[in-house]
Protein 1
Amino acid sequence: MTPDPRELLSRSKMSMLQVIAVAITIGLNALDGFDVLAISFAAPGIAEEWGINRAELGIVLSMELVGMAIGSIALGGLADRIGRRPTILACLVVMTGGMLMVPSATGMLELSVWRVLTGLGIGGMLAAINAAAAEFSNSKRRDLNVSLMAIGYPVGAVLGGLVVAQLLKFYEWRSIFYFGGLVTALFIPLVLLFVPESVHWLSQKQPKGALDKINRTLTRMGHPTITALPVVTETQRKQSATGIFTRGLILTTILVTLAYFLHITTFYFILKWVPKIVVDMGFAASSAAGVLTWANVGGATGGAVLGLLAQRYNVKALTIGVLIISTVMVTVFGHVEADLAQISLICACAGFFTNAGVVGLYAILARAFPTHVRGSGTGFAIGTGRGGSVLAPMLGGFLFAAGFELPSVAFIISAGSLIAAAALFFLKLSPDIDGGTSTANAATDPAVTPAPATR
């Protein structure tokens, strides 16, 4: 009997190609970290040059999140229809164009259009790379690899922050977007060379030439080839993205989307408003970029720690715990004094727990949905969540404009993480993904035999 290549990859030691592919997904998420925060780094300069107030700035800060929400929902489904690889490549082209056009903007409307375009590319790519990181991993390393992919975000922000701090000493805010566009473009040939189409996706969808593509990838990974594709019925092969709303998956979809929505709102309040808050305390824009860098150093560390712990402990319990602590740390941030060292320390601690929560949610998303809707489910949760995160900079801006002080604003927005933890309490997950299908939902997928749920 011809072995199922998905099971072969799940059981086998990861090859160098798999390691490189996962590493590239980390780099791609690092682009997300830099691209999304580019507008935060540039915000003080834009506000000064164009004379816009906090409420108007909050709207500008939210625009790429609007695009990201649309891109995640629309293009996440595309990753399930046409494949992970072409979706990633298309999104990189869109991101590059959006970043490089920002410096030409002469007003808020034009700037908003290019930030929405950049967000479209980021949103679609996030859904595709989360699926790719899970599907290029074996079962032993899956949670760790998805967590590493997720911490690419703060790593990109940290490295970008170091570069931006230097750029802002010598150049204006437009240089940030030139740099970001160039680095984004450099990833296109890397994906072409080192990220083949997912074997899991090819085995499930079985497009024309799927057997040859799977065998070429297996050969590059050092595995024996197969003589026939896994048996998948026509109904299974053509399952659509709307499967996330079927009876077997609807509760999972609601809970993970709600949790992501609420926590990301808290997460983005820190990321979007730190530079402006620090500048308003009397510090230079380069110092504000440095504080945001420390927040992301904490975020990268927190994500790595959670990924390592998830190999031994229940990922849902870990995520609930860090979400609760996130609530506390964001509230503490609201009481920070105008001392650069203290601000940096508190932001690093807040970043540690808020990003660990994001990493935990990504690991949960990779487990929650089967192959045929993994991109769609992840895209819907991320898209809806990032749509909700549009509220963070806007809500912060309007609360500040209404006369609320920082302690009150931080306390109100920190509640998102606490309610997200409550939502995850009701989510049930299984410990592994078998043959590319989440065993938590295997009963709804006739292609696999369900394993007993333990969570």
Note: Confidence is low (pLDDT under 50) at residues 432-455.
Protein 2
Amino acid sequence: MKTINLPSMTQLTIFYYVVDLNSFSKAAEQLGHSKSHISQQVRILEEQFQIRLIERNTRKMALTLAGEQLFQHARYIVEECQAATNTLARLRDKPEGLLRITAPSAYCAHRLAPIMPEFLKHYPDIKVDLRTTAELLDLVRDKIDIAIRLTYTPPEDRIAKRIDSYQLLVCASPAYLNQHEEPKHPNDLNQHATLNYGIEKRSYRWRFLMNGTETHIDVKSTLACNTYEPILEAVTAGIGIAHLPNYVVEKAVSAGKLNLILTEYTPPEIPIYLIYAQQPSIPPSIRAFVEFLQEK
């Protein structure tokens, strides 16, 4: 089988710039090569096909008929390469595509849900899959782009961007406090009905800061649930005292439906992180969501 000699992309690109700029020196400067290298590549191209492409002397250069025809092909190839490069650059820089996020359900309901429409309006080419769960999903195995974690210890093998923090607050309705003496110390809680997030025994131990030391107080639960909404409904209705994150109760507090109590014993803030996998280049959709939440 006869071997077909094909000009290389490099040779065609060099030939295009030599002709387009009408100068070996300018082509060398444009492409970052020496003038001798540029001349050599054009000569190799001519020798490979045994045809003269450029007539040149010390004063000027002129294309042969073959050179003119090859230049048209070379120009098309170079322009297409530039278009392809621009397309890839736009794809690299433009936030678009599917973004898969996981977050605790209450944080999603009270923090993400109110601002998600703004994010989607600002980035109409991003589609979001939002999975709400308290489970610590594996980003790679479960194909998650971003996980929102409420923790003191984010994973060391992932990128962790702190975006916020929250505090656990003790609250009760004005109606409940009108009927019961307000507790002045965490130890007074054993005289009250309490409402607990979580059904495990450890959820009946509320965190407080007393004399600069974090302390746990055991409470007797009237209602325990593994979601915040029933607890919020019950505490607003005056059933008892609850221990809830600030982002869950802030609207009810602002509306006067709940009062904060034992505020001098509020435990330290718990950080909130955006977690995503380490990679050579962060996808624009992830970068856009991270920056959006950091601003918010």
Note: The mean pLDDT is 86.
Protein 3
Amino acid sequence: MSNAHKDVAVVLGGGSFGTAVATILAENGHEARLWVRDAETAAAINDDSENPKYLPGSILPSGVCASDDLIASLANATLIFVAVPSSAFVEVLRKACPYVPEGAMVVSCTKGIAADGFQLMSQLLMQEWPQARVGVLSGPNLAKEIVDKTFTGTVIASEDDALCKRIQAALSCEYFRVYQSDDMFGVELGGALKNIYAIATGMAAALGVGDNTRGLLITRSLAEMSRFAAHLGGNPMTFLGLAGVGDLVVTCSSPLSRNYQVGFQVGQGKTVAEAVASLGQTAEGINTIKLVAERAQQLDIYMPIATGLYDILFRQLPLSDVIKKLMGGDHSYDVEFTVGLGE
């Protein structure tokens, strides 16, 4: 590791991505603690160097120390990574709050949106842990590939420059490159929104669409993401980076993507509930579709793909009707921000 500073780094959430972050931290020489909800998972990680539920077959470094004791895990923490599903986010934050040290650097790794007030995870963190310094980590980061040490990059986003530099030092290694951004809102929104479009491309793949169609779908998805972010005060240029187009392309192309898998199974005729149940992990995009489609309607933001998915999954409209509507929608400009639209 290039920086001699060693952190007491805690990852809250023993899912696939939380485990991957703990793996990097341990290999970089930090004290890497991984808090998980059940003693069985903790024992498997500590005794067998494997997370059997989320990353079966991947050998974890011996430096990853798992525990189901939240208080003990947080003792003297200098870095905290929160990687629990958005549905459990506030619950975990409130339980942990009394044990989060003053001035601790905290990074959200959860790519979702809370229904209550349409809040991003960083906003919840700042509310629940006012004593902490907050950042967001997002990018094309499929956990299985990270644990297998394939090359990738990510973005640490915060207006706190010292936090960004610290996270870059803590996580950067020969296979994981960490870039910096001060647009925390845009980076985090990109990570949440792309899950919608991974479901759409998964459905399209199940229907056997061509490569041209896939290219159209991914590109128009990027246009929707940046348009939505701009209306909410984000910087649309952020979506040209790793946390935008980078994450979108990976999530919309890889069978390793949970949201892509859910979309693929729905495209094969399964219900949403059946697809999610067979996955056995959280697919944040299902909840995000509903929240974003409803917010887009409230704010009169043109989001035909997100709205179309909402119509299919929540209103049970026929897929053929939605596709026909999509192909007949407005298509005046390709990149609307170059002509001053969407501002």
Note: The beta strands are 8-12, 31-35, 64-67, 79-82, 105-108, 113-114, 119-120, 133-138, 152-157, 176-181.
Protein 4
Amino acid sequence: MAVKIYQNLVNRVKDILKCDVGITDNYGMVIASTKTDEIGNIDDGSFDFITTNESYLENDDVAYMKIEDRKSNSYVAYIRGNAEYRKNALKFISLSFENAKLYYKEKYDKKSFIKNILLGNVLPGDISIRAKELRVKDDVRRVAYLIRTEKTKDIFAYNIIQSLYPSDTRDFVVLLDDQNTVLVKELKEKETKDDIYRKARIIIDTLNTELMVKASVGIGTEVDRLRDISRSFKDAQTALTIGSIFETDKTIIDYNHLGIGRLIYQLPTTLCKLFLNEVFEDGVYELLDPETMLTIQKFFENNLNVSETSRQLFVHRNTLVYRLDKILKLTGKDLRNFDDAIHFKVAMMVKRYLDEVQK
């Protein structure tokens, strides 16, 4: 289909200039030409021109111009004969060629189609029609993974994920920017939530092994229609955002398992401040030193079990009891009491959320 677009372009230019026009790839092979017998053959002049550092070259018989590509000088346009305004005509061909490539990509490229759905650039009513044109299944189970990595100059993370899921008919790997990549994964009939999570773990482990970069994955909700994949993507974004506040030790955050963090994130900050003031008096929370905070964290992790917490902290049981009494004296909350522990835990999460919002 793209070749037809390029062929129409050179034919129109010939109608204006009254001379033969062609386009070659980066190997010098003619992909479009007004002389149809040239198509598919290597044009020696273009091949030699590609190896030079020149962007434009002309003689009495032909003029060449490289068509700049984002990654490399991938194409060459040429005009045969000594027609007037050859250079300007080749500039026009170069611009028209880039527009034709963009048009083709937007209309016929599956990944661009999926990316536009994710970003909400396709009308819901057009999605099923375009899906049929591109032979993309509409009514199958899918889930969106948002993979976020450290900022790098290259897009190696995208390449690694693409190598894990090379199929461009069932799974789609979409590059958003140098930190964010989306995997739209088609699910098999018997795949469970555990299988979905396991795939995220494979991605994390592969990126850590191959690139040695820190990565986190947000898992969106499972959807049954292609038009709903944008919702799954937004849920994956929300999962990573909430996870970065409340689950900083986790690398995989599932939107369906956000817990109390989801509720706090959706509350107005005014209500959060009111709740925080109910639990802690002004300045009390700031009196808790790092050692005390570590004690509180371990105590919660071990379900308020004094013996297990003291063992993990490598302190005597009586030392832990002394620390808990100290916390009670400072805050008025006895963490050995379930209700007090609940209020304290939620208040810590609210404080973390407010600190993040106020950054």
Note: The chain has three domains: 2-108, 110-260, 267-357.
